[in-house]
């Protein structure tokens, strides 16, 4: 293989030398042709001493041209012959390699067939183990989630935002549950710091909904304060419900004016909590669209302002559509979670149940 490769390079070099000789011969041949064209164009003959050299130069050029053609042909012919031999040898080696590879593939397939049964059993075992681990993690996370109070997050900015409704009275009601009471006390502290009048924290045997339910006395001032509190808590990811006025008397009796009612129930499961938050955001977005529509109707005489409001309305409608889709997905997950809970131990109203 080494000898053939060296020979190939040698004859390729010979062919290139012959090609260069051909170029030189052609250049020398052009001397006579250039002289004739010069004489024809100028209308006079070149000096006699120049004519004495034209024939020898042309003869030398012809000889060099013929020799170059011969050398180039000889080099090309031998290079092609050696190249064909090398190709034949490489094809033979490639055929043997393919044959060896085919045998190796057959042996590998046989080994795979022998191992397929054990591998399938191993995959099934890993899958079952991963499923069991996921169920265990889900059970532990759910247990931990239900064993801590609902967190209102960073309190300083929360209190600062609530100072806009300072002076409003707030009544707290919560389940006779350590976690619910902890959440109620944390909220009462922040509201008191924001100059809300925390009247009392009372216990109730049950709550209208899981999570936090907010109601108010029916007047405009308490309604604005309740709406502000609701939005801030929703932004912090807490499960917030609105109290139906029918249930006001059942849970808190008659609510005086300028009063907000906060009922802290059991902390919902993670999936249910996300669904409640998504539902609350969708309701707020729907109310925002209603307010924008009212504003638009009042600005119909102002084209520039109307265009601005229309753009705002379209953005709100797109956000509302997104929130609807998120609510549907969260609801689907919550329903799936309630019907397909992982085996394990769950904490419900401080009672451990299987």
The rounded distance between the terminal residues' Cα atoms is: 79 Å
The low-confidence parts are 341-354
- Using only CA atoms, what is the Rg? 47 Å
Domain count: the total is 2
Mean pLDDT: 77
Major beta sheet summary: 5 strands, mixed
CATH topology description of the largest domain = Alpha-Beta Plaits
Q: Can you tell me the CATH class of the largest domain? A: Alpha Beta
Strand numbers in spatial order across the main sheet: 2-1-5-3-4
Structural class: alpha/beta
Shape: elongated
Order of helices and strands: HHHEHEEHEHEHHEE
Helical residue percent? over 70%
Number of discrete helical segments = 8
- CATH architecture label of the largest domain: 2-Layer Sandwich
What percentage of the residues does DSSP assign to strands (E)?
Answer: 5-15%
**Count of DSSP E strands?**
7
Features:
Alpha-Beta Plaits; disordered C terminus; 2 domains; 354 residues; 7 strands; two-stranded antiparallel sheet; elongated
Word description of this protein:
The protein is α/β, with parallel strands linked by helices and 354 residues long. It folds into 2 domains: 2-112; 155-353, 2-Layer Sandwich (Alpha-Beta Plaits). 72% of the residues lie in helices and 10% in strands. The protein contains 8 helices and 7 strands, in the order H-H-H-E-H-E-E-H-E-H-E-H-H-E-E. The chain has helices at residues 2-42, 48-146, 155-162, 178-193, 220-235, 245-252, 270-298, 303-339, and strands spanning 169-175, 197-204, 212-216, 240-242, 259-264, 346-348, 351-353. A 5-stranded mixed β-sheet has the order 2-1-5-3-4, with helices on both faces. Helix 1 (2-42) crosses helix 2 and helix 7 packs antiparallel against helix 8. Residues 341-354 have low confidence and may be disordered.
């Amino acid at each position: 293989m080494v000898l053939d490769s060296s020979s190939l390079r040698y004859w390729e070099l010979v062919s290139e030398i012959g090609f260069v000789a051909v170029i030189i011969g052609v250049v020398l041949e052009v001397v006579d042709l250039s002289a004739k064209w010069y004489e024809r164009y100028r209308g006079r003959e070149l000096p006699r001493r120049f004519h004495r050299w034209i024939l020898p130069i042309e003869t030398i050029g012809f000889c060099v041209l013929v020799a170059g053609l011969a050398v180039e042909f000889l080099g090309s012919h031998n290079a092609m012959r050696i190249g064909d031999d090398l190709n034949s040898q490489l094809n033979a080696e490639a055929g043997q390699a393919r044959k060896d590879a085919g045998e190796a593939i057959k042996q590998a397939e046989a080994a795979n067939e022998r191992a397929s049964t054990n591998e399938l059993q191993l995959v099934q075992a890993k899958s079952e183990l991963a499923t069991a681990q996921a169920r265990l993690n889900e059970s532990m996370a759910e247990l931990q989630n239900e064993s801590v109070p609902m967190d209102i997050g960073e309190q300083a900015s929360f209190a600062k935002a609530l100072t806009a409704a300072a002076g409003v009275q707030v009544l707290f009601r919560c389940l006779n549950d350590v976690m619910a009471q902890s959440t109620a006390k944390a909220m009462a502290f922040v509201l008191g710091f924001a100059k809300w009048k925390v009247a009392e924290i009372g216990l109730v045997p049950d709550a209208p909904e899981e999570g936090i339910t907010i109601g108010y006395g029916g007047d405009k001032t308490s309604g604005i304060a309740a709406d502000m509190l609701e939005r801030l808590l929703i932004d912090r990811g807490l499960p917030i419900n609105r109290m139906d006025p029918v249930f006001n008397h059942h849970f808190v009796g008659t609510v005086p004016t300028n009063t907000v009612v906060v009922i802290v129930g059991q902390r919902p499961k993670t999936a249910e909590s996300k669904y409640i938050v998504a539902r609350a955001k969708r309701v707020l977005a729907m109310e925002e669209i209603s307010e924008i529509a009212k504003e638009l109707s009042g600005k119909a005489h102002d084209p520039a302002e109307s265009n601005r409001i229309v753009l705002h309305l379209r953005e709100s409608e797109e956000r509302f559509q997104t929130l609807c889709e998120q609510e549907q997905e969260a609801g689907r997950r919550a329903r799936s979670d309630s019907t397909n809970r992982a085996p394990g131990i769950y904490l419900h109203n401080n009672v451990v149940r299987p």
